[in-house]
Design goal:
Blueprint lengths: L9 H8 L4 E5 L9 E5 L26 E3 L4 E3 L29 E4 L5 H9 L6 E2 L14 E2 L11 E5 L9 E3 L4 E5 L8 E2 L9 E3 L3 E3 L4 E3 L6 E8 L5 E2 L8 E6 L3 E2 L11 E7 L2 E3 L5 E9 L4 E3 L4 E8 L20 E5 L19 E5 L4 E2 L4 E6 L5 E7 L3 E2 L18 E4 L3 E4 L11 H10 L3 E4 L3 E3 L4 E3 L5 E4 L4 E3 L8 E3 L7 E8 L17 E3 L14 E10 L9 E7 L4 E10 L2 E2 L17 E2 L7 E7 L5 E8 L6 E3 L5 E8 L7 H4 L5 E3 L5 E9 L7 E7 L9 E2 L2 E4 L5 E7 L4 E2 L9 E4 L6 H4 L1 H16 L1 H9 L10 H5 L2
Parallel strand pairs: 5-8, 8-10, 9-12, 10-15, 11-15, 15-17, 16-18, 17-19, 18-20, 19-21, 20-22, 21-23, 23-25, 31-32, 32-35, 33-36, 34-37, 35-38, 36-38, 37-39, 38-40, 39-41, 40-42, 41-45, 42-46, 45-47, 46-48, 47-49, 48-50, 49-51, 50-52, 50-53, 51-54
Antiparallel strand pairs: 1-2, 3-4, 6-7, 13-14, 24-25, 26-29, 27-28, 28-30, 43-44, 53-56, 54-55
């Protein structure tokens, strides 16, 4: 045991007396390992970590120092971030294998095989469709057809299907199912192509609508957790990608149409980035969608979706979108335009059959900076061997004398190519064989300056992954999933001062937290980008990047998983590109468990109060943070809290939690809260579906400049279903504006600034306050709170609950 030096300050002694002098930290973590080290009290963050407090030199080094986490009041052993073992025990640095030894979850499609052989291989990797019978639906158009059903919605299996480059197109069908990434391995999108087989039509990679047993029809409202990337689609029917959140399509070129819906099935997408479409870009039944760095050909068109479309860096023919003309030298703020559907090509409205030209689209013609997601490529070198490279696209910065071009960039010619000799390929757990040492192995590689590729699978972390060097890449493939450490620490920490870090393609899952003196009651965050309370401006020329980040609190059988804030960004000049931060509204049914809301859904258990707790999706404290494509859903307090200055968010989709009571409204929780200065928010929608209680929420968005239409652009609210409502669209903290407009199926309201807004909605505010008081003091509400800890299950009818 090492004891703190007696010369430590008196206050430190007082704290030290309250805890053990040392703790035992498990160091080498493979199952059953017994190697342990003693850590002094200072290493818990209780005492300052310096030579004064140690009998010998500290085992750790900057930039990490002990942290007292202000929000959770927890102390973390940040000195152990360097490793839980002495560096003397680390393996010597060596080159990694190239090509790597890919695990069985990575399927490399051999370019020398015939298309028939490849199709047979793919058929064994894809979800198996079901023949729809009259027992399943009365829809005559579906009876006898073959459809996919969401049986893999909460599967633990992860897959990456990579196609080697070749001159001839692949003539195959590739259904992209749950937890599957399909991608070409070319340096350019043209290196891997998919085409029809003569007169026989093929699809290439595609995602169709799924059959829903409750709806007795098709839907894409839960086609989550999949991706398609880096290829060209030459098929005559074009690219079909009917998805919702966490299902991006990136770095593709389709010579015909890109269809983001399937037969009008309801959709709640989505994100496409770095895409070239020569035909029509068809959103169809999509409720909302974000398009970033998209080029639509001269003969193409854009058919908009239902409620909101956001276009960032989109080049399209005149008549589709406002052309980005004469932007050199103009202030960037002038390059953001507001479009109505009257100025866009428009398909018939999917729900009414009418043409609706009232919905807004938001266009950011010239964003200051865009950064593409990193990707894996393969090349055949001089000796005919196959070598792998990690491509790191450079930021496209549109300022100065030589601004970067607009639209899609599919060539890869300016990418930083990093050979896999310096890329560590991490291996996930294999079934029940859990590698408790995996985070330590990754941290060793990161300290050696290597980049990391997380192969498909689930990683049960026992400590945080710590990114300590600038420009490092942590890339997940095949929906690699990091399960949070059981002690409440983050999955990933990015050290202060480490600019240019790239994190992408990763799912995050909440864990059940161990109880104990030194453990947080919840996971503090999945990603801690920078350090709380430490100023870190970042670098606008070399920003940190978060691409395709998908967090979820709940989903699997364990309903005691929890988190505090899913993503915290403390560093400045960080760019986000497609983040979905989801507290589960539904989870997997246990064996022989009946659905608790059968009149809503037959496939899942609906999350109720007390299950899968999560406070906030995103907290931003850094300045100049920009996000293109953000969705946050169902957290139990403010969905987003933005404290940093000069922030920008273009496209925001939010559902408030289904399972809260009027406390949520009484405490003034909202869908998006801005506390910082000079923040711009474009294309933001906040939706309500208060299933269990008639919750009344004052407003959807709180923003200091809520009523400046050049700052808060095209905000709107939607009443999806059930009781309660959001009273107004926006507020600056004292004034509320944009009252609801009802129709038969949905309440959809945009905010149009009017001087009389406050007066017009005074009666609604009084009604809300009166209802809130009644709800807060009613015996029904009190008895519900008293009974909830003892209830085995909630009432099954949302109508019945709402009318109590």
């Amino acid at each position: 045991r090492q004891s703190a030096n007696t010369s430590a300050q008196t206050t430190h002694h007082a704290i030290q007396d309250a805890i053990q002098d040392t703790i035992q930290v498990r160091a080498a973590g493979k199952r059953g390992a017994k190697q342990e080290e003693s850590w002094p009290a200072c290493c818990l963050g209780v005492l300052p970590c310096s030579p004064l407090n140690l009998a010998s030199t500290p085992l750790h080094e900057p930039p990490f120092e002990p942290t007292f986490h202000k929000k959770t009041k927890m102390i973390f052993a940040n000195c152990a971030l360097d490793s839980t073992i002495s560096k003397a025990n680390e393996p010597a640095e060596s080159a990694e294998l190239n090509p790597p030894n890919w695990p069985a979850s990575v399927h490399i499609i051999d370019s020398t095989k015939s298309d028939k052989e490849i199709q047979n291989e793919l058929d064994g990797l894809q979800e198996q469709p079901t023949i729809i019978t009259s027992d399943m639906t009365s829809n005559q158009d579906l009876i006898g057809t073959t459809q996919f059903v969401p049986t893999e919605h909460f599967s633990s299996e992860r897959k990456a299907i990579f196609f080697e480059p070749r001159e001839e197109p692949y003539k195959v069908d590739v259904q992209v199912g749950y937890y599957v990434q399909v991608a070409g391995l070319g340096a350019s999108a043209k290196d891997v192509k998919f085409a029809d087989n003569g007169a026989e039509k093929k699809k290439g990679p595609y995602c169709p609508a799924y059959f829903n047993t409750k709806l007795e029809g098709l839907t894409t409202l839960d086609t989550f957790w999949r991706s398609a990337e880096n290829y060209s689609n030459l098929t005559k029917d074009g690219q079909l990608w009917a998805v919702s959140q966490a299902a991006p399509i990136r770095r593709i070129h389709t010579v015909n149409d890109l269809n983001l819906n399937d037969k009008g099935a309801q959709s709640s997408g989505g994100h496409l980035a770095n895409v070239q479409v020569d035909g029509a870009l068809v959103f169809g039944s999509q409720q909302q969608f974000c398009s970033r760095s998209v080029t639509v050909g001269d003969s193409g068109a854009i058919n908009l979706g239902a409620w909101s479309n956001v276009f960032v860096d989109t080049v399209a023919p005149e008549g589709c979108l406002k052309a980005p003309a004469a932007w050199n030298g103009a202030p960037f703020g002038e390059n953001l335009s507001l479009e109505t559907r009257a100025n866009n090509w428009r398909a018939a409205d999917w729900s009414t059959g009418s043409v609706d030209k009232d919905g807004a689209s938001t266009t950011v013609n010239v964003p200051k900076t865009t950064v593409e997601k990193c990707f894996v490529a393969m090349e055949t070198v001089a000796d005919d061997s196959k070598k792998y490279f990690l491509h790191v696209p450079q930021p496209r910065i549109r300022s100065g004398d030589s601004p970067s071009p607009l639209g899609a960039d599919l060539s890869g010619t300016t990418d930083d190519r990093r050979p896999f000799e310096n890329v560590y390929v991490a291996l996930a757990d294999a079934g029940d064989d859990i590698d408790y040492d995996v985070a330590r192995k990754i941290n060793i590689a990161l300290r050696q300056g290597k980049d990391i590729v997380l192969s498909p699978g689930i990683y049960h972390l026992q400590e945080s992954i710590n990114i300590v060097k600038k420009d490092q890449v942590l890339l997940g493939i095949g929906m690699a999933t990091l399960a949070a450490p059981p002690n409440g620490e983050p999955c990933i920490r990015v050290a202060t001062g480490t600019e240019g870090v790239r994190i992408g393609g990763i799912m995050f899952a909440a864990s059940k937290i161990n109880k104990g003196l030194f453990f947080s009651p919840k996971t503090t965050a999945f990603i801690e980008f920078g350090k709380e309370g430490v100023a870190d401006a970042g670098n606008p020329s070399n920003p940190g990047v978060l691409s395709d980040i998908f967090c979820r609190v709940g989903g699997d059988l364990d309903r005691e998983v929890s988190t505090d804030v899913m993503v915290r960004i403390h560093q400045g000049n960080v760019i986000g590109d497609n983040l979905w931060l989801w507290r589960a509204d539904h989870v997997e049914l246990a064996a022989d468990e009946s659905p608790n809301f059968p009149d809503m859904n037959l496939d899942y258990h609906q999350v109720v109060m007390g299950e899968c707790p999560g406070k906030t999706g995103l907290e931003v404290n850094g300045d100049n943070v920009v996000i293109h494509g953000l969705a946050v859903e169902h957290t139990q307090e403010d969905q987003v809290v933005w404290n940093g200055n000069d922030g920008q968010v273009y496209f925001y989709q939010c559902e408030l939690p289904y399972d809260v009571d009027q406390n949520f409204g009484a405490k003034n929780f909202v869908g998006f809260r801005v506390n910082g200065e000079n923040h711009q928010l474009g294309g933001a929608g906040v939706y309500s579906n208060f299933r269990d209680y008639n919750v009344l929420v004052k407003t959807g968005i709180v923003h200091p400049k809520a009523f400046d239409s050049k700052v808060v652009i095209n905000p709107f609210i939607v009443h999806l279903n059930n009781g309660g409502r959001i009273m107004t669209v926006v507020s600056d903290g004292s004034t509320f504006g944009g009252g609801p407009v009802y129709d038969k199926d949905h309440m959809i309201c945009k905010y149009n600034p009017k001087a009389e807004d406050e007066k017009m909605h005074e009666s609604e505010k009084e009604e809300m306050e009166e209802n809130t008081m009644v709800r807060q003091t009613s015996w029904g509400w009190i008895s519900e709170k008293l009974a909830s800890p003892f209830r085995g299950s909630r009432p099954t009818s949302p109508t019945g609950v709402a009318s109590q």
